[in-house]
Design brief:
Blueprint lengths: L4 E5 L5 E6 H7 L2 E13 L2 E9 L10 E2 L2 E4 L11 H7 L8 E13 L2 E14 L12 E8 H8 L6 E5 L6 E5 L9 H15 L6
Helix pairs in contact: 3-4
């Protein structure tokens, strides 16, 4: 996986070359990712889903993250990234079912790991109950939260959010803080929440 080849860009998203995934994260090159957020409406309430990263992952094990996401390889298009939803969650999603949230920049720096992403974000509004078949090497569980709570959480209006752990013999509900999420930038979380909210309110983002 670390030898996968990615396109690399300058900060203005101009293509400047290619590098291995390992070198991209060592040198902090800007690169592209596919990111899909899944929301399901139940009894009039919108719930947003997060994956729990496998505890075997080298980066950010056991933390909550985007519903499904992955790197866009040098030979791939953005649409090819849809494979991540099937691979990680076992859910078939078609291109025309995804609502574009735009490209959102995000940087994470921890030790020798520098992740500078142009994230192509999409929203999938599920119209049927979700059934997950997880890729255990990547994802160890799923949780969901009230989207309105998540919105307030992203904007710092509340410090903890109530989530429900799924795929257990009995659902578990607990409060969590930002320390239990992958440390995306606050601006990233705010952009995501704002753009999803626009769609849920009947608007759109282009």
């Amino acid at each position: 996986m670390e030898n996968e080849i990615l396109n690399i860009y300058d900060e203005h998203r101009n293509l400047i070359g290619k590098e291995s995934r390992q070198e991209v994260h060592r040198k902090g090159h800007w690169h592209e990712t596919f990111q899909c957020w899944i929301v399901e409406k139940v009894n009039g309430i919108n719930y947003i889903y997060f994956q729990v990263r496998s505890d075997e992952k080298a980066d950010f094990p056991s933390l909550l993250d985007i519903t499904a996401a992955g790197h866009i390889l040098a030979h791939e298009t953005v649409e090819d990234g849809i494979r991540e939803v099937k691979e990680e969650l076992g859910i078939d999603v078609k291109k025309d079912e995804l609502l574009p949230l735009g490209v959102i920049k995000n940087t994470i720096i921890t030790g020798n790991f520098i992740d500078c992403e142009f994230g192509h974000n999409f929203l999938y509004k599920s119209k049927q109950p979700l059934t997950f078949n997880l890729q255990v090497e990547e994802v160890s569980g799923m949780v969901k939260a009230n989207f309105n709570d998540f919105y307030q959480f992203c904007y710092g209006e509340i410090e903890e959010i109530l989530v429900e752990e799924l795929l257990k013999s009995e659902p578990v509900r607990r409060y969590i803080g930002k320390d239990q999420f992958v440390p995306h930038q606050d601006t990233y979380f705010k952009n995501v929440a704002e753009r999803i909210a626009a769609y849920l309110d009947g608007a759109s983002f282009q």
